[in-house]
Every structure is written in structure tokens, then in C-alpha cells.
Target: Histone H1
Amino acid sequence: MKKFEEVKSLVAALEADADKFYNKGNSAAGTRIRKGMQDLKNLAQAIRLEVQETKNKA
Model:
């Protein structure tokens, strides 16, 4: 459950950069969004593997 909380906090942290990129045209914020989304993808993959492993043990 800890990793799921990390996902939620990461998405919340990216919200300000998303506003800067989409509404204010700040291209540096776009770079931060792309990095954050890559981190989010990696975290999601780790959660998927953890869930699969737990399911297979049961």
C-alpha cells in the first residue's frame, strides 16, 4: 500500500507543472512532467510485479 501512496503523491506533485505547461506554455515544466511520468510508469510496473507475486504465492 506504501507504493500506491507514492503514486498518489507523485501525481499531486506533477499537477503544478502540468498547469504551467498546458496553461502558461512553460516548456521546462513539460520536461519535468515527462520525467515524472517516467517515474510514475516505473512505480506502476513495480506495483504490478508486487501484486502478481503476492497473487501467485496465495
User: Anything to note?
Assistant: Helices lie at 2-24, 27-57. The radius of gyration is 15 Å.
